[in-house]
Amino acid sequence: MKIKAAVVYEKGGPFVIKEVDLADPKEDEVLVKIAGCGVCHTDEGVRKGDIPLPFPIILGHEGSGIVEKVGTRVNRLAPGDHVIFSAYRCGECEFCLSGHPAECIHMVEGSFSGAYADGTRRHRDENGVELHSFFSQSAFATHVIANQNNTYKIDDDVDIALMGPLSCGVNTGVGTVLNIIDPPAGSGIAVFGCGGVGLSGVMGAKIAACTTIIGVDVVPSRLEMAKELGCTHTINGKEVEDVAGEILRITGGAGIDNCFDTTGIPALINAAIIAMKQLGKCAICAAMEENIMDMRLTSRVRSEAKYLIGVTEGDSNYPFFLPKLVDFYKAGMLPFDKMTKYYGLEEIDRAFQDSLSGKVIKPIIRF
Predict the structure, then answer these.
(1) Could you tell me the pTM of the whole model?
(2) What would be the CATH architecture of the domain defined by 2-167+335-366?
(3) What distance, in Å, lies between the first and last C-alpha atoms of the chain?
(4) 173-313: CATH number
(5) Per-residue pLDDT tens over the stretch 232-244
């Protein structure tokens, strides 16, 4: 079928809006009409070449929409269902079966190879050029094909165009706090980086009833949003030279119970180690430099039993956790819509510019 999509033809190149051919879904796949797709820094990482994938490619991995057609073996979805997607999961490996699908052993080949998990590509432009895919969806397009394993039905009484970011950025932030850090009510947490993932972590901390929530960033508008979404204190890293010392001051010298880093900046991870109480957890979900920790602090991590934990996709059990995020939103506990702004497909380059500048935290391409 003919669809419209935003194609990137070369590393660092612009999005080119094209009419392309999309193949029919296979027996375990669905065809979804996209309503919206969030803009994520991971998409930009691929476009810039920091994340090595082949070109030309159709990006977009925070898609949401309505099922139009299902394959013969699809048994959990039907035409008309409102759905969001996750990273690819096979549904059969030890991690998928043990409730950790973000660690699926086939996730990379299904999400970051430029092809679907079976090795095929489903898009061609008007010249017959085969286009590479992303996250087994490529949702900067009017329609996508996705496997039923990474497609999830959600309630149809919410704006389906808004729901896409729940599948990645929001899921990662809220999931890291609730699933990995699991802070007890009344505890404290410091969130380093107040972009989409970090602010989702702030909302997760509020859901968990943390009473001290500290947001650290260098963009004043993001810090204001952090306060609106649940931070009790904020620290501007451009204005405060000693971030760890400021956290200790805020906590009366006791230190913060847990930390969540979304920056990958070694100095901030070191600050988290210094400012964190014994037995505290510092969860990290960011691309990091090789040497993230001052070697002088390694003995402190050991002697004070502090935990550094790498997290992928919030370690969420997607089939159960993603619908739960919708419930949180409907209950007013996850107002992630406050950090979004809609753009048309033809405005996709501006959406990325606004995201990179910090002007908009979570742009959404609305179809």
Answers:
(1) 0.94
(2) Alpha-Beta Complex (3.90)
(3) 17
(4) 3.40.50.720
(5) 999 999 999 999 9
